[in-house]
């Protein structure tokens, strides 16, 4: 049994605001805590500069200095490991390296990225701090092949890079979908990349023929724009609003397929949820997204909305293909993306660090 200090500078896992980032942090805590380990939130101090504002960065550094001083004194004496989730140029870890150096605690990171292009410009100072924090980590766990590119190029000394695929915080798969209900989309409704995915989705639906229905789960400030995009389809597109986990699972249990283009998604937990229920996924073959999708005929971005529509139409017209693809997806998730696999990968890499400290 080990005692672990966990920290997420961008958003505390205790944040009341739902997001994929918060969800993944919670999942990681669950995975690390398995096998009777103790995981405690080291701090809820948020270090995040969205716009690149030097005065804000200076204020956050001052707060971090005070917090690090407190933690050096107050962190439980039997803490054996510090884990930081999502260190990057807008949200560098200003606590972990300082505390671990002072206390002699091994330091590892999860889902960190290096952005050398940001070492100049409005985030230059924070980007350097994120880079330095990466250098301080004995192990960096990466979630996607895209993240590995720069982590490998900038790898510091004897640092170890370990793949930790995104995962669901469960040990067993949910019951499989009947795959005979409406299509399903799950996505927050906000400007930027999410709205871009909804725009692609609306244009894709224009190419479909026959009888189809799409349920959309999600809400947010861009909902009026999403509703306007979908207005042309009338009752074929139904807005479910934001759903709790149990209600969403009921929709996975009926869905014929899951459709989401995935513009600039880091990976997307909803893809894992859909596949775990045996729901075939239609998404564009994009970096990050492809790391959580069962290998299949995912449309290239260059094929545009017609490529997405062709894949959807094929699945709409062939129930046997939906079942085959869904069953393959479930097997893929069971083998690679559930919590037992994540726990084993994490502790297999980290245990040697703790043994060195004994």
Automatic annotation (TrEMBL):
Residues 206-330 form the Glycosyl transferase family domain. The keyword rRNA-binding does not apply. Keywords: Transferase. It holds the Pfam family Glycos_transf_1. One of its GO terms (molecular function) is glycosyltransferase activity. InterPro entries: Glyco_trans_1 (IPR001296), Glycosyltransferase_grp1 (IPR050194). The keyword Nucleus does not apply. SUPFAM superfamilies: UDP-Glycosyltransferase/glycogen phosphorylase. This is Glycosyltransferase involved in cell wall biosynthesis. It comes from Ruegeria conchae.
